[in-house]
């Protein structure tokens, strides 16, 4: 299986960029992350996400949604809100969230 970026989508669409630094507390995090992945995929406006973590510990997740309404559904999900609260309590030293409307999008993939 090759690693590929999320494909370019037809604009406009919305992206949420969640940059974070984690604590050393991992208790319950993997299970909660798996559940959040399940929930967000049930959102018809969810397009996909990308994630990376630097060796120094900065994590960046970029999630893509068809529109602001789809992102609002995700933000207001009760299980997601509980996870966000636990993240502030246990899992994150700091984080920043940026939300933007994408106006232009294109991609490239080498064949073969």
Structure description:
It is an enzyme of class 1 (oxidoreductase). Its EC number is 1.14.-.-. This is Antibiotic biosynthesis monooxygenase. Pfam families: ABM. This protein is an alpha+beta fold and 112 residues long. It has 3 helices and 4 strands; from the N terminus they run βαββααβ. A 4-stranded antiparallel beta sheet has the order 2-3-1-4. β2 and β3 form a beta hairpin. α1 runs antiparallel to α3. The longest helix is centred in the C-terminal third of the chain and has 14 residues.
Provide the descriptors you would attach to this structure in a database record:
112 residues, alpha+beta, Alpha-Beta Plaits, four-stranded antiparallel sheet
What is the structure about, briefly put?
32% of the residues lie in helices and 33% in strands. By secondary structure, the protein is α+β, with helices and mostly antiparallel strands.
| Count of separate DSSP helical elements | 3
String of helices and strands: EHEEHHE
Shape: globular
Largest sheet: 4 strands, antiparallel
Distance between the termini: 13 Å
Mean pLDDT across all residues, rounded? 95
Structural class: alpha+beta
Rounded to the nearest angstrom, the radius of gyration is 15 Å
Reported by name, the CATH topology of the domain at 25-102 is Alpha-Beta Plaits
Annotation, overall tally of beta strands: 4
Order of strands across the biggest sheet? 2-3-1-4
CATH architecture of the domain at 25-102: 2-Layer Sandwich
InterPro entries: ABM_dom, Dimeric_a/b-barrel, Jasmonate_Hydroxylase-like
Domain ABM: 14-85
Protein name: Antibiotic biosynthesis monooxygenase
Keywords: Monooxygenase, Oxidoreductase
């Amino acid at each position: 299986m090759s690693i590929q970026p999320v494909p370019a989508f037809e604009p406009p669409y919305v992206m949420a960029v969640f940059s974070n630094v984690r604590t050393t507390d991992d208790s319950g995090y993997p299970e909660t992350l798996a559940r959040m992945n399940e929930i967000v995929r049930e959102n018809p406006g969810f397009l996909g996400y990308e994630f990376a973590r630097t060796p120094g510990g900065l994590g960046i997740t970029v999630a893509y949604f068809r529109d602001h309404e789809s992102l609002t559904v995700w933000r207001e999900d009760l299980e997601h809100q509980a996870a966000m609260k636990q993240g502030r309590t246990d899992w994150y030293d700091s984080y920043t969230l940026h939300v933007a409307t994408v106006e232009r999008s294109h991609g490239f993939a080498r064949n073969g």
